Amino acid sequence: MHGGKALVKIFERAAVDYIFSSPGTEWPPVWEAFAEAKQRGDSRIGFINCRHEALAVAMASGYTKITGKPQAVLLHATAGPLNAAMYLRAAYQERVPMVVCCGETAAFGEESRLPDPGNQWIHDLTDIGGPAELLRRCVKWSERVTSSSILVQSVERAIQIAVEPPAGPVLLGVPFECMLDEVALPDETRPNRVARPSDLNEKAIQEAADLLLRAERPVLVTEHAGRDASAVHPLVELCESLAIPVMESFRPAFLNFPRNHPLYLAYDPRRVEAADLVLIADAVTPWYPISKGPKADAKVVFIGDEYPYSRLPFWGYKVDLALIAPPAATLARLLSRIKASEGFIGQRSIYEERSRRIREDHDKQAAALKQGAAEHKNDVPVDPRWLCQALDESIPANAVIVEETTVHRTLIQTMITRTEPMSYLARVTGGLGVSLGYGLGAKLAMKDRPVFVLIGDGGFHYNPVPSCLGLAQEYKLPITVVVFNNQRYLSMERGLLRYYPEGASKQTGIHFGGPILPNPDYRHFAEVYGGYGVRVTDPKDIPSAVAQSLEHNRAGRLAIIDVVLSDYLPRQ
To answer: I need a labelling partner for 15 at 20 to 30 A (CA). Which of 119, 360, 381, 451 fits?
Structure first.
């Protein structure tokens, strides 16, 4: 069969659900393979025709985060991955597996037995080293197929590398000639089964259990434990058993712990400094700066499937014991060992008292947040605290929140409570522009659940908005986008005034890099793509805007709620 058909079949065998593509002229063999499949009624794998490379990668990432299943992406030549570089870097930092294939040429029209790929490959579509060389630092692994005779093995190996811990995106340059050429695809007679060894022997588990049982002031810090949905419930049970308070540090990208749970607290570095044991559950920055962590005699235990974060140029945290394995399995073994311990049974009253104190702190924090919001419920422009409170009361409990804000991130995290795994997704990296793609990927994975993308007006401009909204309309993936519209890049203004509190910017009110003016009327984006748009300036209109958006979503239409906010700056 020709290489394009083989490529589709390889992805089918790997249980890939969709090929997300922002394609170019090198992919007709794949399109023909899909047409043949549709002609015979074969729908084992879907093709999502994205309108921007960034959308293709972000949507594949969002889908994989929800399902845990790696997907495939096809991009055009070197221009495609260059356009998607920031999104590939995000997937790399977030450990999201996917296989990205990019077009190349191997013969530049000199292979007479195959159709001519066209002179554009000499003129403007290729670079020295190809896409694999250009994007090497943005992905986990990158390489190029050098011959059609190794196409099948190369793609199969790329899939294996993508999922090998720590997982991540891989990039494979595929020459157009390999797509056109005839290749052999052997019968699937020997599936790959990999048994990965673990260092978590009984001694290590017992040591961790003993440290937890002896701790008088433990605290758990997490950011990404919820990447694996099956880790959330054993994490909750462990913390409930030992009355361990839970905090999420710098940028939680998942629902790691129910945020209305009595053991859940807002992040406070003082609690880390006072702890005699810090349990880190897959947190890249459990405290900052590194020099201001727990006291020297405090114990630090790390749980995660990667250590010490080799993707990062610097990670200087020291731990007493690192348990490196899938966190769900580690937590289950740790919990079982603790519950069987005599020390656990004999300290029930201590845990109950500790749990009571933590619950008091939790209730005080929650009450203070609600009180602060209520005090500003009538403010015009809308106060961000009241917006979050109103959204918490209006958004359905089964909705998925996709967050991409900067200054409002902590408010959203603590006030719009989510309780179930995969009910909250956020970006990890510093790059803006991913949330609409993440939201569409989440909606594709969970079509029966509402998806709300909460995005700053600055972040909105970095997303490929027309491509995302067009895809939502084309594939009937209705999401609701809530724009936190404060007419500025408030984080940039905050930095300016922090470093120059008495400077010319403060004196004149001229904040270069801050304003987004004239202020767009974002609701009209929805109308262009057959959706519902509303601009909210009165805080009383928030619930009705959400209700109307949900009605339109149920009818298959996207929605945009543009909320004009005050410039209130939450305490970070």
So the answer is: 451
